[in-house]
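Standup notes, protein team

Yesterday: finished cleaning the Companilactobacillus crustorum set.
Today: Lipase esterase (Putative) structure.
Blockers: none.

Input for Lipase esterase (Putative):
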Amino acid sequence: MDAKEYNLEISDHEFKLKGYWLDQIEDFGQAVEYPVVIICPGGGFTFHSEREEEPIALRFNSFGMHAVVMEYKLIDEEPVYPTALQQLAKTIDWIERQPDSRHIDKKRIILAGFSAGGHLVAAYNGAGTDPELRKRYQIDQYIGEPAGVILGYPVIDMTIKGSFPNDNKVLHEISNDPTFWKTEDLLNQNSKPAFVWQTRTDNLVYVINTLLYVEKMTKLGLPAEYHMFGSGIHGLAFGTYVTKKPGKDKYLNAWTSKWIELALNWLQMMKLLG
C-alpha cells in the first residue's frame, strides 16, 4: 500500500487529503482497477475525528478499495458551506484526473461520511447531483460523480430541535443558506444509492435524521439500505477496541460493529465492489 498526503485548494481555502492506495498483486497476472472511497470524518464541524479516518480507510482497503480521507472546511470566520461542497467536488475531480497507473475504477467512486461528515456527503448527494444547484454553488466546473454513498450516524436535518446543532449561532456558522439545513430536501431523481446506519439511542444526532433521509429516498424510488441498531452512543466508529477511546467502554458495541460487514454486502449487491 502507498500512503500519501496531498494539499488541494479551493476558494483560497487549502485542505488536506490522505490517500491509501492499494498495490497491484502480481499473482493475479493482470492489472486490477479498484473502486475508491472518499471518507469525510465527523467532528461537529470543529475538528476532524481521527477515529473515523485511517481506521476506516484501512478497513475499506481490506475490502479491495482505495481510500482517500478528505479534511473539509471547519467552522471559522466564514460558514462551512458552500466551500465544503466545493472541496468535495474538487476531490472527486482530482480522483478522476489521477493517472491510469493508479488503477482506479473511476465509475465506482463511493462517498462515506460520518456525523458532520455525513451531512456533507448527504448534501452532495443532493446538491451535487442537481444541475441547477451545481451551477449555483460553482461545482459544475468539476468532473466526475459518485456511484453511491455510505452514511454513518449522519447529521441530515439541522433544524430538528434538541438534535445537533441545536444552537442557532452554530447553525449559521455552518451555513447561512437554508438550502443546506435539510439535506433530505436536496434529494432528487439523480441522487445516488445510499447505505445508512445509526443507533436508536444516539442522543446527539437524533435517529429521526436518518429516518427522514431514507423516507425521502424511498419516495423517490432510489435504492437505499437502512440499519437502525437498538443501542449505542453517537460516534461509535467501529464500536470495537480499534476506535474505542481509552478508558471509555461506552465506545464498545459488538452489535453495532456489524455495520461495516453489512456495508460490504451492500457494496457487492449494488455491484460497486468485486
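Follow-up from PR in the comments: The CA atoms of residues 153 and 180 lie 17 Å apart.
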